[in-house]
Structures are given as structure tokens and as C-alpha cells.
Design goal:
Structural class of chain C: alpha+beta
Number of helices of chain C: 4
Helix content of chain C: 10-25%
Mean pLDDT of chain C: 68
Chains: A alpha+beta, B mainly alpha, C alpha+beta
Helix content of chain A: 25-40%
Number of helices of chain A: 22
Largest sheet of chain C: 3 strands, antiparallel
Order of helices and strands of chain C: HEHEEHEEHEE
Number of strands of chain A: 15
Strand content of chain C: 15-25%
Oligomer: heterotrimer
Distance between the termini of chain C: 51 Å
Distance between the termini of chain A: 33 Å
Strand order of the largest sheet of chain C: 2-3-5
Largest sheet of chain A: 5 strands, mixed
Amino acid sequence: MTAPATIAPVFENLPGLVDVGVMGPGGMPLAHTTRDSFETVVEMLRERGFAHLEFLTAQERSGEEPGVEMLYGFTRRADLTRVVLAVPLAEDDLEIETLSWLWPGAAVLEREVFDLFGVAFEGHPALKRIVLRDDFEGHPLRKSFELVEGGVTAEQVAKALESHGVAPTSLGADGGRQAYFDPFEHLAGGDPALKSQRMVINIGPQHPSTHGVLHVYLAIDGEQVVGAEPTQGYLHRCIEKLCETRTYKAMPAMLDRCDYVSAFHAELAYSLAMEELLGIESTPRADYLRVLMGELVRITSHHTWFAAAGLDTGALTPFLFAFIDRELILDFFEEVTGGRMMFNYIRPGGVKEDMPEGAADKIRGFLDTFTHRMDECEALLTGNEIFRLRTRGIGFLDPAEVEPWCITGPVARASGIDIDLRRDEPYAAYDRMKINVPLAYSGDTYDRYTVRVAEMREAGRLALEALNALEGIEGPHINPDVPRVIKPEAGTAAYGRVESPRGELGVLVISDGTDKPWRLKVRSPAMSNLHCAPVILQNTKVGDVVAVLGSVDIVMGEIDR
Amino acid sequence: MRILQILFGIVVLIVIVLVNTIVVMWVERKELGHMQGRLGPMRTGWHGLMQPFADALKLLGKEDIIPAGADRTIFLIAPLIAFTPAILVYCATPWVEQIAGFSFDSGIFLVFAVAAVFPVGVLMAGWSSHNKYSLIGGFRSAAQQISYEVPMILAVMGVVMLAGSMRLGTIVESQAGLYNIIKQPFAAMLFFITLLSEINRTPFDLPEAESELVAGFNTEYSSMRFALFFVAEYANVFTMSLLATLLFLGGWNGPLLPGIVWLLLKTYAVVFLIIWVRATLPRVRVDQLMAFGWKGLLPAALVNVLITAVGVVTNTWVLVALEFIALSIFVWAVTRLGATAGDKRRADATARFAKSREGASA
Amino acid sequence: MKGMAIGMAAVMRRFLTPSVNERYPDRKKVLPPRSRMSFELPRHESGDVNCKSCGLCAKNCPDNAITIESVKREDGPGRVLTHFVIDLGVCMYCGLCVENCPSDGIRFTGNFEGSTPTREGTVLVLEYNPQPVVPTPQAEPSATVSGALSPPDLTGVSTQESGGDAVRQVGDRAPDTVAAAEAEGGEAS
């Protein structure tokens, strides 16, 4: 397979490219390079405008040679060209140069690859496990990884016990936490004039307001934040690994569990990828049903965030106001899909079933009053003096930091970066709709609030538009050409991406010709957004930390997967 | 005989305080529930009326945990020190004209003096718990209560000047014609704001700000010791509402109904308002709280004293007019404070970011 | 204080409107027909289950939560269902079993009263006939009935085949027992 002609200039004169082709029937250009020329290629691609690191992951090499293949997805925002760079690594030399000096946000993605594949990154500032325990042995996403009972070998148990009883040596020089985040390094500072001393406090994972099980090391000097490092992994459920053992049909149900507050979007991203792989299209009616459900779930997801935004600043009632409205939408989901949060509804080729009789009228009834309901919710926060004092001018995110930290979604839009996949790269029925993208320009906590609230209203409008369009569209809800047993061609891959409430959510499916994916990677927008915490927490106070972090909309299920 | 009388008085006092505390707890849960579209407790008794008792029983049955590393003695007595003033305050509080613990001339002085002991208990609890959150909560609480006591007492000064006495009974009697809330609306507003801070209620509930400090100073407390803090807080809510009623709402003055009924009605109206505020407002940040207390409320309270002095030497209507003007300016200033919050930093950032966006696109 | 006043007005409006609580045990909500709650095996008028014991539900179950056993019918073609057990402790209510059933053999019910104090309580036994209607001479008691409770078998996680090959014939000799894969005890880590 060769790359489309339009892509040719992208790869022109790049040294060290082994071959250029496409990933699958979707035509995503794929270039192989070697480890030696990798750095040069990336730098030159970056100069050519591919500044958005879409995903950074790896897959087990399926050919004769054992090893791991690194996969880098780059996007050029200007014309939305996407390329994938593949770098094969031999089994005995799993090492590659880090990208974290070009994209600080890549550091955390590289840690994930290190954790799950065992690839070492040369020059990485802090290479350590991210989702698994520090003393875990083995790299679960390798095919050679043998899962034993409970995931722990007898030796590991013995070792853990030993480390409890004897000395904390088992963490080793770079296995332990100290190597990455040394609390005493921060403690060394302080204001000499005030004779102050720095203190490290752990916020989470059992703190009442850390959005699930987020854990942040916070170095503070008095009330001033001087350093922050979010830790994840407390909600890791190995979804990517589990997906490799399930059939393609079971995948939407698995992916629902990733981002549990907006499950439709993960399903949709997967379905788009699969449609690309299988060369099928969804039906017009399914397109609009997808938009309707996607926008309704966007509202519920933002409701959850709104509730948390209130709680983070200490207001109790916005939580209940938002959840009362959210419950009403969940009732519609239950009526249409059967599930309130885990839908298993959108699938390759269409949706599971059409709306039942009468559901459209109920949804319309709700959407007609939605503006009023939003006004009631907003009355509690938007104009409130204390809320404004708490959020305005706090937690700035410089738009120059957006691309290096791989930030997408409302967080980027609040800094004035005008990106929205629904408009830029329409999927489902978005190409037939007009989408207004709310923007704000100062990038503080309050702007992220206003952008999301505007997005909720816009989502309500889009849902109503989709509902109206559905009236005029007859036809099947699923493409009858979808094969009964899904077995994409071996060696093909596709990447589906959607605008989830948190940003660009992508699902990369790599097939090996069986009825189970060889590798399934979920690009988690919230993960990249969360790890910019050191940037947005600059010059904030302890009291702001939760409010600022809450404004990036953290869903730990999606971050850990 | 005298000792028996005193003992009887003490028992009556404690019963009155506890009964009202329990009612305040119930009102809070029900009101908050309905304001949030919920029902609140419904299972224990009629509309959950027995819920506070159930809570108390539950807490009694819990294990009393003393954390390792805690300063044991201080940890154990801190709840008592926090709880005692909540009851002691009632010594000087008149209920109706005839019933009062001690009706003595510096009653209001005693009330504030005794109430000021509460932060000591909180500070002890925070210090002794061997927990960063508790410690920060305790410090915040002490700092906050000391800062807000000053404007609070200054706001009450106006009332004292009008009545010409610090005896609470005399202050109530002086409001027989016109309530102080009409004569001193500005002082009433200042008093209400400082009151919220004194009893650690939203928007000034920083000592127990759960989004930052888990549960603040009482994070490590369990069982009955936690219950004592809990009761002390609700007792304080009732105390301060009662004080607000006596000082600004005319106490037991009122037509038709007996004085005690009026007093309780007005007190629970204030309790309702306090909970209503809690249901609505977010929490201020600790530095904003301090800035507001020292830079906003303290000068405002001084202005109020000045206005009252002018009113005392001229006549009541001049006083009312001046007070309303001051109140309007205060409300306008706070509104403006919120409307323009962070404007400068936001404008700077917008300008800076516009440049970096251009740089990114170029 | 304008913003605060607006907020307080909104809260007061909510205070004066009836609450949205559904008083659950007193009044039970009627769930929409598509709700994915507990399971049932629909029956013919004669009392036989619709289920043809084809095992497609167990095969499609992503969590291997379904255990089916059946014996061959002696008086005609097809099979007689003896055991149908779903471990709701691992079930994720995705509905793939219901969706893939060719004979309307399994359905969702609106019954959401699934709380139980023990782990054993999460195992839903929909059909259990220790003595099959038409016993075959060599039938031997199968151990897979309690598969949901047996120690976790995680082979489905680590190997490629066993997940898809969930329905396997237990012994070719006579009993023709179709045993679905045992439940996964829990995905480790």
C-alpha cells in the first residue's frame, strides 16, 4: 500500500525513512524509520508543522523478529494532515530517544509505554512506572507477559514481604518514587526572608475532593504552591490489555468503562475506527442518532464537571442542581439504550437499536426547557462574587503550552486555541450541522468554566437539531453489511477520533486478522490535560489547587484506563 | 438550697441548649435538603425528626480513636474546651424579660469573652492531632476567629451606643419601638457577615473546608469527641442567632404572642437565613478571607461606629439615613469586587496569550 | 452582592418546588423496557425454557460470566438445558448475551433488587435441574456448575484462544455436556 499523493510532500527528503505506506484502508499515512534517524525525522516533521503529538504508543511486533514497534501519531493543525511514524525496536535493545524535550507532555505517555511495554527512553527526565506498582515485574502489554493468579508471582510476594520486614531496598535506585519526585528537593527551598520551610502534602487518593482517586504531590511554601505532580494508576483496570482478549463485538462494552461519564464517545471513536478498517459506512439515521446521543452525553458529562466545580469551590447546591438535570438525561439513555452510564449502544456500522416510541418527544420536552435549567444552574455560580473571586485570574494556561503538553478540548479552547474536531474534521452527522465553538482568551479557571457552560448550551442546541433532523430520516439504524463475525485484514490499523467532552479522544485499533484486536490503544484527552498540572498550578495557593485541577475536568477512569 | 438552685439552673440550661441544638441540626438537614431538591432525612420519626438522636447514638457507639503520635492530653481535652463556652454563653443571655442566667451590666462583654474560648479548643484539636490537615484547619480557625471578632465587636458597639448599656436586657428593651435592624442596617449586615465567620459557616467555613482540608481540625476525631465538636458548632449557630435576635431584631418584643415565642421565631428565622446562605454560596479562599476581614470589614465597622455617634448626637432619622447610605455603598463595593475580580491579571494574560497564539500560528 | 442574591433566589425557588426524590422502597420506579437489570429465561406455555442451549450467549459474553450445561434430548433433536448460571458479580450488563440469542432464550427483567450480603448471592441460578429430564446413562456430575465460585481461571486473559472458545465440549464420551467457561475470578491488578 502506498501513501496518497497529497502526503508525498510531507515525507519528501526525510532521511532514514525505510518505507512509506498507509496504515489501513482508511489511508492514514505510515512511515517506518529506524532508531538512528528517528530524532531527525521527528524534528523535521515538527518543522513541517506536525506539532500536535496525537498519540504515542507501542505495539508488539507481529513479524518474525521479536520486539516492540513504537508508534507516534502527529497532526498538522493547519490542514489536519495526520501521519504515523513507526520505529521498530529489537527485543534485546528496547530503547529509544525521548521526545519529552520537544513535547513535555510526551513524558507521561512515554512513562506509560515504559510501564506497559518495557521500552526505555533515553534522556527521559523521570522514567518510572505510571499505572502499575513500582515493584511490579513484567510489562503487561507484551504478548509474552504471563498473567498468573492475582497478577503476582510467588517471588514477587516474597519480595514484597521481605521489603516490608527488612529494609526498603526493593524499590531500588530508579524503581522507587524518590528517584522521580524527591520531596526533600522541594523542601530544601523556602523563603530566606520569612525563614519559611517547604512542605510536601499529598492530596489524594483518599482526599474527599480529588475527583476519584487522583493523587497529587504538592510542594507548598506556606500557602503558595511551588511544585505539583499528579500521580495516576489507582483506577487502572487494564482495559487495553483486556480488549486484546475480547472479540471486536465486545469492545464497545469494554470501552464504555474507560470514560464512564461520557461513554458514547469512546464507543463512537472505536466504531469510526472499525468502520474505516472494515470499509463500511454507517447509515444516515445512525449518524444523527450518534450526534444526538453524543451531545446529550456531553451535557451530562459537563453536568458532572459543573457539580464538581461547585464542590471544589465549596458550594454544595450546584452539585445537586446539576445532578437533578443529569438524572433526567440518564433516564433518556436508559430508555433508548438500556443503560444509564454504560450504554453499549454505538457499534461499527450504526447503533444497536433505534429510539423507542415516544422517546423523541420526551427528549424534546427536556431540551425545550434546557436553557431555563441551565440558567438556574448558572445562577448559583456564574455571577456569584465569591465564585468569581475564587476562579478569575487563577490557574492560567498559556496557549503556547497547549501543543507541547498535548492539551485538547475545552481546556485548550479556554486559552483561545480554536480547535474542535466536530467542526474541523466532522464525523457522524456533524458535517451536516453548524457548530459554534465557544472560545475564551485568558485561559484561567473562570474561562474554562465559561467555555464549558457555553458548550453545554451549544450541545443542547445541537441535540435539538439532530432530533429535528431525525424526524425526516427513515432507514435502518445499522448498516446491514456489517459482517457477523468481524475479522479485519491482518496487519491493518485504523485510528478513530472524536471530540469528547474532555478533548480529542482517539481509539487506535490494530488488527492481526483474528476476531480480536492485536492492539487497542485509547488516546485519553484527560490524561494529557491532567499532566499539565505543574503549568496551570503555577502561582496558585493551596486553596486553589482543587478548584484549578477540577477545571481541567478529571475523570480518572479515562486517565488510567 | 442555693447550690440546689444553681444545679437546677445548670441542668435546665444544658437541656435548653441541647434541645435547640438538635432542632438546629434537624432544620439544617431538612432545609438544605429541600433547597437542593431533596427531602433530607425522612426515615427516623416524622420527617426525620429523630435523626439527630440517631446520629448521636451512632457516634456514641463508635470507637474513640486517638491517633498515634497525637499529643494525648491536649487531644482529649480539646473537645471539652470547645464545647464548654457553647453552653457557658447562655449564662448571660436573657430569654425573656424575667428569665436570664445572670442579668448583669456587662452581659454582652461576657458573651464575647466566653465565645472567644472556642478557637482555643479548635487550635488545641488541630495541634494535637498530628495531622497536617488538622493543623492547617486549626490555624485557619484561630486566625479567622480572631480577625473577625474585632469587626464583630465594633459592629455591636453601635447597638451598645444606642442603648447606652451593655446589658442585653436593656438593649432589647431599647428596641421596643424601632428594631435595631431598621436603625442600624449597616451594623446588622456587618454583624451577620462576621457572625458567619465566627461560627465557621459557609462562605467562611475554611477550618473545615472539605475540598482542601478533608475535615479540618476534627479530621482525626471520632466517636463522642467528634460529637462534642459537632454539638458545639450547632450550639454556636443557635447562640449567634439568638444574639443577633437580641441585638438587632428586637428580642422578645412583638405583638400578641408571648415574648419567648417571638424570641424563638426570630432566632430560627436567623438560623434559616444562615442555612440558606450555606446552601447558596461557595467558600472564600483563606487569604481573601483575611483581606476581607481586615481591609473591608474593620474599616466598615469603624465607619459604622462613627455614623452611630453622629446619630446619637443628632436624631434617629439622620442615623437611619446615614446607615442606609453606608449599607448601599458596602453592597455596591462587594458587588464590584466580584464583578472585577482578577480583571487585571486576566487582561494581562489575554494580551500576553494573544502574542503567543500569533507566535504559534506563525 | 447582586450575584449572591440571584443565587439565593434560585435556591429559594428550588426550596418552594416539590423535591425530586423518588421514595424508593415505598414507591418503586417502573423502568423502561430496555433497562438492563437482572435476567430471566423466558418460557413456553408448556413450562419449558425457550433456551436451546446453543451456548452463543456464553460464547459472546466478554466476562465469561455464563455457565450452561445441557444434555442431549433422547426423544428428538436438540438439547435440554440443565444448568444456566450467571455470575452477576462479574457480569457487566452489556447485554451481548441477550442481543446474540437467536431464540429469545434470555431476557432482561426490570428487577434491580440485586443487593446481597454475600459473594455467593451474586450468582444468579436461572435454571438448575440436577436430574435432567432425560438422563443419559453415562451422565456424570459436572463440576462446572459451581464454576462461578471456583478459583479464578485467568487463562482467558493471557492467551489468545480460550476467550473465544468459551463453549467447549466436556468429554466426548457420552454426556455431551456443554460447559461454558468458568467465571473469571477477577482481573488481576
